[in-house]
Amino acid sequence: MPSIGQIFGAIFAVLFVLFAGGIIWLDSLFEESRGQWVRSVAEEVGASSVLAIFAHPDDEQSVAGLLIRARERSGATTRMITATRGEAGSPMPQVSRMEDLAIIRHAEVLKNGYALGISEQLVWEYPDGALAEEDFELYVDRLMQQMIAWQADLIVTFWPDSGYSNHPDHQTAGRAATEAVRRLRETDRENAPSAIAYILAPSRMMSRFGGETGRTVVENQPPPTHQMPGEPRAKIRGWSIHASQSDYLRQTYGIPPAILYRLYDKKHYYLVEFDD
Ligand SMILES: [Zn+2]
């Protein structure tokens, strides 16, 4: 006859194995089998001026690791253009009057940019949720002017067809950034960026738990060419800086950032390098 202690010991051991197995399985959802492992994408392409082009305050959270490591590992200057002030987002939790949300989120993205070591930031006033309906030519033109002014050599943005979360604003930002680079490569090679790093969504997680949207994202994004550390601590800090969005992950995925980023600790990119 096994003793009570032995029975409890056996139950505990089984639960522990199930728990550990569950963690390993969850962690595997955020891993990709493809993509060369690098310490820094910016270092990989020898970038000294990195420009992130996104749609909303908090989009930069997806590339925190790339921006931090660009500056810390290779002394690159990092800059960012956010197209909208995020006024159409749902505050989670509500931290201001709704009519002040644009001002609040504008301030949040500047604060997080500062925390990430970004040296210059522009936040334009395109309408949140309707970037695709704006004058595309003008948007591309403004991006080209900033690429030249800042001598950007690496652009970081969303993959146009999937937009990380299938958000039309994300797709438009990625498409405009890509088009701006393409035109500069054709007309003003000396001032043109030499690489674009597209941030990709975790495909296993998205296809399993992302519903219809997740499957659409995975179907429309390429496999990663590179993967690198995601700097989870900076991302957790970023969600507290973005106070009006700080419950977003918990409410959307049921997981608080501190736990999610233990699992989602690497970031996957599709890197396009142009040869001169
Ligand atoms: Zn966004």
Which tags fit this structure?
single chain; 12 helices; 276 residues; alpha/beta; Rossmann fold; eight-stranded mixed sheet
What does the model show?
With 276 residues, this protein is an alpha/beta fold. The protein has one domain: LmbE-like (Rossmann fold), CATH 3.40.50.10320. It contains 12 helices and 8 strands. It has an 8-stranded mixed sheet with strand order 1-7-8-6-5-2-3-4, sandwiched between helices. Strand 2 (49-54), helix 3 (64-74) and strand 3 (77-84) form a beta-alpha-beta unit. It is globular and about 85 Å long. The structure holds zinc ion. Zinc ion binds at residues 55-56, 59, 167, 170.
- The first-level CATH class is given as Alpha Beta
The ordered string of helix (H) and strand (E) elements is HEHEHEHEHEHHEHHEHHHE
Content-based structural category: alpha/beta
Strand order in space, largest sheet = 1-7-8-6-5-2-3-4
Q: How would you sum up the major sheet?
A: 8 strands, mixed
Summarize it.
By secondary structure, this protein is of the alpha/beta class.
Q: What does the secondary structure layout of this molecule look like, with pairings?
A:
Blueprint: H1 4-28, E1 36-37, H2 41-45, E2 49-54, H3 64-74, E3 77-84, H4 101-115, E4 120-126, H5 136-149, E5 154-158, H6 163-166, H7 168-187, E6 195-200, H8 203-209, H9 211-219, E7 226-229, H10 232-241, H11 248-253, H12 257-263, E8 266-273
Parallel strand pairs: 1-7, 2-3, 2-5, 3-4, 5-6
Antiparallel strand pairs: 6-8, 7-8
The structure holds zinc ion.
